[in-house]
Amino acid sequence: MNVERNIAKLKCGADQQGTALIIDEGHAVTVRHCLKDFYCGKADTITLDIFIDGKVKRIPALPVIDNKDEDKFAYLQLAEKVEPIGKIKFVAYKPSVPS
User: Confidence band (pLDDT; 50, 70, 90) for 83?
Assistant: First the structure.
């Protein structure tokens, strides 16, 4: 599955929304506050709407680790692998899934 953009619309439960960036074939990154309802137990689902082959595909995701620090990124494991179109880089920071 070829991703057309590395940007995805994140939905956490019924009401909470945000943006996630696809960083490799199986992971995305977002800011932790977009998952507040999931961490508080108010939501049990996280999905990403990703443009793949001209269509929007909804892919479930789960946090890789339970990051308690609200000022940090949250890393997500995608339920399906995708092929990102490019590497995401921030100034002096390359996102990667923590081990």
Answer: confident
Q: Domain with 12 in it: what CATH number?
A: 2.40.10.10
Q: Give the tens place of pLDDT for each residue, 26-63.
A: 999 998 889 989 988 999 999 999 988 888 999 999 99
pTM: 0.81
Q: How many structural domains comprise the chain?
A: 1
Q: How far apart are CA 33 and CA 10, in angstroms?
A: 12
- The answer to whether residues 33 and 40 touch, using CB atoms and an 8 Å cutoff, is no
- The structure tokens listed for 29 are 């990154």
Tell me, yes or no, whether 32 lies in a domain: yes
- Domain of 52 in residue numbering reads as 7-78
